Every structure is written in C-alpha cells, then in structure tokens.
Amino acid sequence: MTGLITNLFSGACLLALLSQSALHILAAPLPGAAADTDASSDSAPGYLSDATSWKFAGAMLSVPRSSIAATSVGHLALFAGGRLQNNSYSDVVDIFNRQTNKWTTARLSVARSEIGAGSLAGRYALFAGGFDSSFRPMSLVDVYDTETAQWSTISLNTPRGAPRFLDLGETTAIIGGLSGDLQYLSRAVDYVSADLKISNATIPSAYPQFGVAVSDRDCGIGLFTSGYQNNKPGERFNDFQPSNQSTLFVANDLSASFSQAPAFPSPRWGAGGAASNGLFAIGGGHLFGDGTTEPLTTVLDRVDLFSASTGQWSSTPLKLSVPRDYPMVQAIGDYIVFVGGSDVSKDFDILDTKSGSFIQGLKHRPALYTLRTDAAAATIDDCLMIIAGGLVNQGRNATASVELFNACRT
C-alpha cells in the first residue's frame, strides 16, 4: 500500500518534500522538543517565521453568529451563514479583503447552517449543502467568483449537511456529511472542476464516516480520516463509534482519485487538522466512556502526523499543551496552528512542520483575546489567520467579534 500511495504523488511535490527532509520529520519526532523560531533564509517569503512577531488586530462581523462556514480565496476570507442568537439561520456573508483591509457583506441564496466551505482553482469560494430552517439537508452550492465578484449556484448530487472539503488545486472534492436519511452519514463524494462541472463518486468504506478533511493544495493531496462512523448503516438505530478509516485523495489533471490509506492510529471524535509541506496533523478530540470506570467524556491532547512522502502515520504522536475538543486548526507557512477547543487556554499551539515538533518557550505566545467555541477560522495568503464569531460566556451568547493574527511580511 505504501508504494502504491507514493507512486500517485506528483514528482514536483515529492521533490519539495524530500528537500525539506520530510522523511526525517516522521522518523522520530519528539513531543515537546524545542524548535528554532527565528526567521531563516529558506523560510517562505510571505510570512514571518518568528511567531512572537505576529501582530493582533480586532474587528466585528456584521451579525453575531456561530456555526459559520469559512474559507479563503486569493486575498479574500469569507464567513457565511450560521446560527443567530435566537437559533434561526443566517444568509449573511462577511468578506474581508486583505489588500484593502476592508470588510464587505453579501448574501447566500438561502439562509442555512452547517454549511461546508472551501475553495477551488484559486478563484472560487464554495458554500455547499447545510440544513435549512426545517433541518432538511440541502444540495445547493453557492459559488463566489473572485475574478468577477459575481455569485452563482450549482448543485450537489446528494443533499447533505456539513460536508467536508478538500482543495486539490484544479479540482475540489466535497466529501460525506449528514444525509438526513436512515443511514444518516453519507459516503457521497462530489468533484467540482475548475469549469464548475460536478461529477460524483462513492467512498467504498466499510462504514459511513463523518471525519476530518485536510488537504495540501500545493501537492494536490487530501486526507479524509478520524471522526466517527455508523457501524449499523441502514438499520433503525444507528451505532456511532470512533473511526480509524482513512481515505487518500490525489489530484489527476482536472479530476481526482482516491484509495484506502493506512488506518488512523487513534480513533476519536472532534479532532481538527491542517497540512503544510506534505505533513498532515490531526489533533485533539474526545472519547466517550461508560461513566462508571471511566469518565463519560475525555478530551485529548494527542496529535497524529501523516506524511505524504511515506504514506504512513508517525509511530510517535505529539502532544498539545492542553487537551482540545473541536480545535480550530490552520496552516501558516511552515506552521500548523491549533487554537481553541479548550476552556482553559487561549494560547496557540504551533507545530513546526520542518522539525516535526511544537515550538516551545515563546516569550510572547500568540493567544486568543476571547475564549470561544463553535467559531470559524480562515487563513489568507498563507499568512493572515482570522477567527470569527462563535459562542462566548460558556456557550450562552453568539458573538460578532473577530480576531486577526497577522504573520505577513510587509
């Protein structure tokens, strides 16, 4: 299986990974090992590699809400839909332009929540599926063209809420989600090509899965893994269990293909993930216990690493500074940032993908100003991370507050 997976990757991607010693990264990553935070000569020119130099700024969404769909395309970050304070659904789209440093608003064609969001071909922002006010899964996809500033709509082959996105370059895969039928979890895959044509497929997995989707657009590689699965599809009563299923997606010209990847080493619910330099990091999440011999819920600090160059998971997991459930995870240059998903820490955990370890000993660690849950995150130009909306005051109130962490070189 390893050889088959490796052969699917583009030579350019593999060459880049090998030049950064990706094989060495997964040889023996050491949890807690210190990493150099100073700017280096081989750092990407677009971001500040010294995390203590990242600058903070605040802003406000036009409407307070949670469960927002977020994505970025070019110099834009878009935050769409979600739940209002009264639990009704929103059609508002807040758009931030990094070049002008200004916010504008637009509208989705239908108000909804639990929307999947992603980008396509460096041009389009896609907002797919979701649930309407009657909690029916939708097939609608709102498309924003950043070149023409125009909106249009297309349709998924299978309606579903909360589908997952993999941006594979000239193709985007929209995977799974909540189907609303007896099976409840969907195996459906919709591929959207750069000309906005949609084709469909079905993941032939053992069980329908609601997992984490992480892609490395530069390499045209995506990973769908972790989360939970329904062990009794089609039966009257579902049986949801942590999932170790992993599916690898690889771009092929204007399309993509998928194959089974090595099993996720630590099945759990509620993890988050991101990728940089061909290194995929899946961290946090929770497990359920019986409530007698073990807690009903245990939140985890574990981070598992998957290497695109080897097609394997690391045998040595890393640890977050605190356990995090449903963390927001974003890639900034060579870094993967974990934030939120915890009631005890506002601090960022910053994974350096070149060393395979978390940065330690920062004098001024980037941190949230406001603890929040169910918030949205997007990163523009690989250097400006924006965290928007969510629930505050122990989940009682929706907020409009926005926090911007600027790691961009001027």
What does this structure look like?
- Residues 1-27 form the signal peptide.
- The protein is mainly beta.
- The protein has a domain at 1-60 and 274-410.
- Helix content is 5%, strand content 40%.
- The protein has 3 helices and 34 strands.
- β30 and β31 form a beta hairpin.
- The protein is globular.
Percentage of β-strand residues: 35-45%
Basic shape: globular
Number of β-strand runs: 34
Number of helices: 3
Q: Give the integer mean of the pLDDT values.
A: 88
Largest sheet: 5 strands, antiparallel
What would you report as the Rg, rounded to the nearest angstrom?
A: 20 Å
N- and C-termini, Cα separation? 44 Å
Structural class given helices, strands, pairing? Answer: mainly beta
Helix-residue proportion: under 10%
Weakly predicted, low-confidence segments: 1-12, 14-44
InterPro entries: Gal_Oxase/kelch_b-propeller, Kelch-typ_b-propeller
Protein name: Kelch repeat-containing protein
Keywords: Kelch repeat, Repeat, Signal
Organism: Coemansia spiralis
